[in-house]
Specification:
By secondary structure, the chain is mainly beta. It is built from no helices and eleven strands.
Length: 120
């Protein structure tokens, strides 16, 4: 049974950094991060292959966010740097039994989400 548990969200100021974690037992293949800003639909942020060698980012995340994983610790990470007001959202980790993907419908398992709030 695949289970994902996110942590690391919080309230930060614009320009600050934050590192999200997602512990996932049984997650051998691709994982991803998505986010849902208030009043908006959930959107893709980043994805990483099972071996950690392949990554893909949304344009909004390129240059500021870094996805990584430590398979020995069964943990997925998302490093958020230079956070901006429009990064405020609930961030979700997700898992799929396959290669990297950017569409949320391609992921079978989801965490409960962690709130990131950026203030000015």
């Amino acid at each position: 049974q695949v289970q994902l548990v996110e942590s690391g969200g919080g309230l930060v100021q614009a320009g600050d950094s934050l590192k999200l974690s997602c512990v996932c037992s049984g997650c051998a293949y691709a994982m991803g991060w998505f986010r849902q800003p208030p009043g908006k639909e959930r959107e893709f942020v980043a994805t990483i292959s099972g071996d950690g060698k392949l990554t893909n980012y949304a344009d909004s995340a390129k240059g500021r966010f870094t996805i990584s994983r430590d398979n020995a610790k069964s943990t997925l990470y998302l490093q958020l740097n230079n956070l901006q007001l429009d990064d405020t959202a609930v961030y979700y980790c997700a898992y799929r039994d396959g290669p990297t993907a950017t569409y949320e419908g391609q992921y079978q398992y989801w965490g409960q989400g962690t709130q990131v709030t950026v203030s000015s």
